[in-house]
Amino acid sequence: MSRLNTWEYRSPDIHRQQPPLPASSADRDLTPMPSGPEALLTSKEASQILKIHPKVLERMAKRGEVPALKVGKFWRYRASTLDAWITSRLQSGRQPCRMPTSF
Questions:
Q1: DSSP alpha helices (H): ranges in 4-100?
Q2: Residues near 82 by Cβ (< 8 Å), separated by ≥ 6?
Q3: Cα torsion 50, 67, 36, 91: sign
Q4: All residues at 6 or more sequence positions from 44 whose CB lies less than 8 Å from its CB, including other chains
Q5: Mode of pairing for the β-strands spanning 69-71 and 74-78
Q6: How far is CA 21 from the centre of its chain?
Q7: What is the DSSP letter of 52?
Q8: Which residues, 6+ apart, have CB-to-CB distance to 66 below 8 Å?
Q9: In order of start, what are the domains of the chain with their CATH numbers?
Q10: pLDDT tens sequence for the chain (103 residues)
């Protein structure tokens, strides 16, 4: 869930001096976050990113085809790891766009 920040342009007023405004919550959101654990995505969230069904993604995770972590009975995914995995799959020339079929 992202929060939209609205910005206003205030023209400088030379005749009137105002004390600096205290840091609002919007200003605090712009500071870098301290390094900590990355939020994990659920199967539903990750499957929406990859545009596949959640059960297909879980089967891929079970087979080790996609980087995932099993927490209890649920699969979880890191967004940064999924992004790196997608990038590596795109740069790899080993996966064909079409699978050869023989009838």
A1: 25-29, 43-50, 54-63, 79-91
A2: 41, 46, 49, 50, 66, 67
A3: negative
A4: 54
A5: antiparallel
A6: 33
A7: S
A8: 57, 60, 77, 82, 85
A9: 39-91 (3.90.105)
A10: 444 444 444 445 545 555 555 555 455 555 555 677 888 999 999 999 999 999 999 999 999 999 999 999 999 999 999 999 999 888 877 665 666 667 6
- Sheet containing strand 40-41, edge to edge, reads 40-41, 74-78, 69-71
Write out the two tokens for 74: 């649920």
CA neighbor of 75 nearest in space, from 49, 48, 50, 47:
47
Angle at 89 between CA 76 and CA 91, to 5 degrees: 145
